[in-house]
Every structure is written in C-alpha cells, then in structure tokens.
Amino acid sequence: MEREWHYMCTSIGSGFYVFDIIITTVAVNAYNLDSYAEGSCEVAARVNFCRTRGGFIVSCFQALAYRALFALQHSNEAARYISTPHKARTSTYGI
C-alpha cells in the first residue's frame, strides 16, 4: 500500500483537466464570437450546447465501462472457481 500513489495526485490531475477544459472553452468562445460577430447569440448558444452535451455523454461511457468491468470481474471469479479443486472450495464447516 505504501507504494501506491496518494489519492490527492488524482485530484490534482482532475484539477488540471478541468483547468484545461475552461481554457479551451474560453479560447473557442473568443474565436467564434470574434469571427461571427453578427450571430454572436447563436454562436454562444451552440458552443455552450456542445460543451454541456459533451459533459453528459461522459456518463454514458462511464456506465458502459462499469458494465464491462463488472462482467470482467465476474468472469474472473467464475474461472477461478472452476479451476480450483473441489476440496479447496468447501469451507471448514462442510457447507
């Protein structure tokens, strides 16, 4: 356990990710609003729609990843159960 990374390292990585998203969103907004000044309301609405839609899509991919990990974990458990001898599977109480 002492060779693992501290949980704050992932927190700092997440902070860098969020900071990058904010910088990128500001840059894209500034460029699009300067380029299409006549349709600034529509441009701002489209950029914000894409940003929020991207945030909601992440939860869909996370659900698929969790299902895959769940299936992988149970297939490993089943393979380990099948590969162990019958005597090793019984408990000390004979149940």
In short:
With 95 residues, this protein is an all-alpha fold.
Structure description:
With 95 residues, this protein is mainly α. It has one domain. The protein has helices spanning 7-35, 40-83, 86-89. It has three helices and no strands. Helix 1 runs antiparallel to helix 2 (40-83).
Number of helices: 3
What structural category arises from helix and sheet content? mainly alpha
Main sheet properties: none
Average pLDDT taken over every residue: 78
Shape: elongated
Low-pLDDT ranges: none
Span between termini: 34 Å
Classify the beta-strand content into a percent band: under 5%
Question: How many beta-strand segments?
Answer: 0
Helix content: over 70%
Taken in chain order, the helices and strands follow as HHH
| Rounded radius of gyration (Å) | 25 Å
Number of domains: 1
Helix and strand arrangement:
Blueprint: H1 7-35, H2 40-83, H3 86-89
List keywords for this structure.
3 helices, mainly alpha
